[in-house]
Amino acid sequence: xxxxxxxxxxxxxxxxxxxxxxxxVEGTSNPNLYWYRQAAGRGxxxxxxxxxxxxxxxEVPQNLxxxxxxxxxxxxxxxxxxxxxxxxxxxxxxxxxxxYFGPGTRLTVL
Amino acid sequence: xxxxxxxxLFLSMQEGKxxxxxxxxSTTSDRLYWYRQDPGKSxxxxFVLLSNGAVKQEGRxxxxxxTKARLSTLHxxxxxxxxxxxxxxxxxxxxxxxxxxxxxxTSLTVIP
Lengths: 110, 112
What we know:
The complex is a heterodimer. Helices cover about 0% and strands about 60% of the residues of chain A. Chain A has strands at about 5, 10-15, 20-25, 30-40, 45-50, 55-60, 65-70, 75-80, 85-95, 100, 105-110. In chain A, the strands form 2 sheets. In chain A, strands 2, 4, 5, 6, 9, 10 and 11 form a 7-stranded mixed sheet that branches. In chain A, strands 1-3-8-7 form a 4-stranded antiparallel sheet, with no helix packed on it. In chain A, a hairpin with a 2-residue loop joins strand 7 (about 65-70) and strand 8. Chain B is about 0% helix and about 55% strand. Chain B has no helices and 11 strands.
């Protein structure tokens, strides 16, 4: 069966510091991968998606970037965090239709 | 820009009652999804609706899709406390990569 992992689970970072969030999927090959952000009490915003290694599409301009160095690994990064980057970051994977979500990383930028 | 609207945003209902959550979207799509999110947790897939007229049921929840009206409903029958959660609908834009656009969510509280 397929499993999706995210780490860290929680993170507190100062403004201006770098960020690296990691997502890995087990039990499937060549999945589509996604990064979403959920602000407190809000819906989900699609940030990036990837249909293959090295293929990244960005949905919203921001100071975040994503990379897919391996088939089942998706990384979300920032060089300098802003206060507005705080939120719940969710990674998801899909093969055909349904997207399956990881446990999430709760990021607080102070 | 694809917009997905849910109503109501907040719903408080008594156990045993019925209610419907509505999801309207602004562009043509034949694929709609419902998810559940418990507080502080990730999203759990509930239903996948892949064509006009699709109806899916699981326990006390039933979802339907009318692509011509661009409307999906999530009907709750005889609510129980365990159904308390936030429910999201998501529309698949249908391009490569299945880009989902999520509704604002409906926060459901079932009161014993």
